[in-house]
Amino acid sequence: MIIGAVDSVHNFILPPVYQYLIQHSQDIEIRLKTYMGFELYSLLERGEIDIAFALFEKPMPNMIIQNFYSDPMVVIANGNHYGSTILLVCKI
Question: pLDDT tens digits, residue range 10-31?
Fold first, then answer.
């Protein structure tokens, strides 16, 4: 299984998932690929990765997009801003 995500997701959010997979799915070979967020959708569409963890939603045909993790953020700016969301994206 090739998992694509941005660097911060690989390093800070997914380590417990990787640990679980290593302990409970020993028959699965896991490879991690780090990309910029905008690249993940096209890589998934071309079959170069099996699953992606993106920071933004880009609706595409034949893909399932589900919220995987949400984390409130503090933004110093004018106007109202909301928390960030990490999306689980996989091709169907």
Answer: 999 999 999 998 899 888 899 9
What are the angstrom distances between the C-alpha of 37 and each of 8, 11, 25, 57? 11, 15, 27, 10
Contact 4, 52 (CB under 8 A): yes
What is the pTM for the complete model shown?
0.74
Dist. CA 45–CA 81, nearest whole Å: 31
Q: Note the Cα 21 to chain centre separation in Å.
A: 16
Please tell me the distance from the alpha carbon of residue 31 to that of residue 22, in angstroms, as a whole number: 12
